[in-house]
Amino acid sequence: MLNTSGEFLVHPRYLAGAGDIGRVLRPVVNAHGWPFENAPHRNRVAATSPCGRIEILCEEAVFHLWKISVRDRPGDKRPRWQATFTRETPAEIVGALVQALAADRYVAPEEIVAEWPGHSTAAWRPLINAGWTPSDLTAVQFDDGDGGIVQVTAPDASGAAVLDGIRLTSPDGKAALVHTPKPDHLFGEGVGPWQIDVAFGPDWLDQWTAVLSAATPVRYLNMLTSAVAGPVPVVRAHAEISTATRTAATIRTLPPSRGSTQFRAFETGLAMRDPRHPNQGHPSR
After folding, report:
1. CB neighbours (10 Å) of residue 238?
2. Both ends of the chain: CA-CA distance in Å?
């Protein structure tokens, strides 16, 4: 049984729950100086890059709590690509994508909308390296009786099946990345070409989903999957750890000598030493 005081290290991080969601926006607002909008009456908080091309939106009343939108030009009505995260997504995972975008905006602004010159397998390589198991995602096609064709997606389907994508499943079976290479408009709300689904308990609070557009640069997909599969545990207070997390994850007490202030200062130090960070100057291009 866990003590109710102190803080704890939770691993794997994708089972840790949301944690302190302020971690997502604080770095871009405090370190990068992004304009910040807080509208409590609308349950809405947002930060926009100074160039106007990146918006990080947090809406408490919406199931997909986080929405990251990246545009080719400021003021474009439609974003080039988007990423959404439901409310129980660990803040460290959302924050990893936000920090990568914030850093690239300074030194390689073209990267945030560019197709990375690599194969899509680079997007899930961190998961393979962490022991996730790939399997073909196939679609069974059959006649609907009215002259049309119905397609049902299922893993490893037999019969009249066509290759429809790939699924990678975590070693504990509680998380999966599904890539279905189709245009965004073919998907319904809450699903998309790139999707991460995590479920470690029966309650919706013990599940989270990330959905990313077809045009998401592979560079950022790779960074996101690296954050999902990262071996470093995350810090949680007792009140932030759900019953399902206690059952599904490995939890250790954070030693007093490595209390949260010291641990988080270490994380901040790593970010500040990033050569792309605006306070550290810019590498030659």
Report:
1. 15
2. 53
What's the residue count for the chain?
285
How far apart are alpha carbons 167 and 179 in whole angstroms?
6
Is 219 exposed, middle or buried, given 0-12, 13-18 or 19+ CB atoms closer than 10 A?
buried
Q: What is the pLDDT of residues 207-265, one digit of tens each?
A: 999 999 999 998 899 999 999 999 999 999 999 999 999 999 999 998 876 555 544 54
Within 10 angstroms of residue 76's Cβ, the number of other Cβ atoms is: 13
Q: Which of 202, 210, 195 is nearest to 137 (CA)?
A: 195
Strand order in the sheet with 66-70: 36-39, 44-48, 54-59, 66-70, 81-85, 207-212, 194-199, 175-179, 161-169, 133-143, 149-155
Tell me, what's the pLDDT at 152? Answer: 44
Query: CB count, 10 Å around CB of 122?
Result: 15
Q: Can you give the pTM of this predicted structure? A: 0.80
